[in-house]
Amino acid sequence: xxxxxxxxxxxxxxxxxxxxxxxxxxxxxxxxxxxxxxxxxxxxxxxxxxxxxxxxxxxxxxxxxxxxxxxxxxxxxxxxxxxxxxxxxxxxxxxxxxxxxxxxxxxxxxxxxxxxxxxxxxxxxxxxxxxxxxxxxxxxxxxxxxxxxxxxxxxxxxxxxxxxxxxxxxxxxxxxxxxxxxxxxxxxxxxxxxxxxxxxxxxxxxxxxxxxxxxxxxxxxxxxxxxxxxxxxxxxxxxxxxxxxxxxxxxxxxxxxxxxxxxxxxxxxxxx
Length: 272
What we know:
Radius of gyration: 19 Å
CATH superfamily of the largest domain: Trypsin-like serine proteases
Distance between the termini: 45 Å
Helix content: 10-25%
Number of domains: 3
Oligomer: single chain
Mean pLDDT: 87
CATH topology of the largest domain: Thrombin, subunit H
Strand content: 35-45%
Number of helices: 4
Strand order of the largest sheet: 1-2-3-6-5-4
Order of helices and strands: HEEEEEEEEEEEEHEEHEHEE
Largest sheet: 6 strands, antiparallel, barrel
Structural class: mainly beta
CATH class of the largest domain: Mainly Beta
Shape: globular
């Protein structure tokens, strides 16, 4: 049974959830986002907001231009800034205080259904095999393409994580709320400009962003970065910020190992 006042909680959470449209995508959208503060900060996944400028559609139908103010590709987080005020910001709760079995609420725009809401329960928290040491909020809740970047919240509508992916068995994973807060407090981290997925032998390159450090180094979709984990690559990029990072990789069906030098940009601090 849902708690008393659930309808009001759900409606408030819907108003704090936006649709994020990136590139030449259709009106079905590329994902969701969370209004983090009333002055125009929106949080979403880095794999949702791949361009430096996107459009954000609010619950009331308004469509606003949004610029990427900070990006952390390895935490899969992006901070967007929109020129608006008095926005319906979401409240948040430390995910470390969660208990297994608590009610979980997800809001997003799966398959173009704007403001779709699903409920489930918190399954646990912690790292996931194959995804490095980083912690996740695990929830037994149904997500679909378009939920990425949207809120996972508790019964009071407080955001406990940013919905990111579904793993084997249908378990949803969300980036913990504390990780979002740390991201907002830190300077923008250097990035190669690639989307990657862990595989048995290393990291598979799924996408190379235009005009990125990876593209300038001639990395391609399908390249396999060898002997690396997600955390290992993140640490290597931070260590090489402002200099050159050498990566070993394989391309195509060839067994020959190659090496590439990538000029890693120095981190930049966001203007106040």
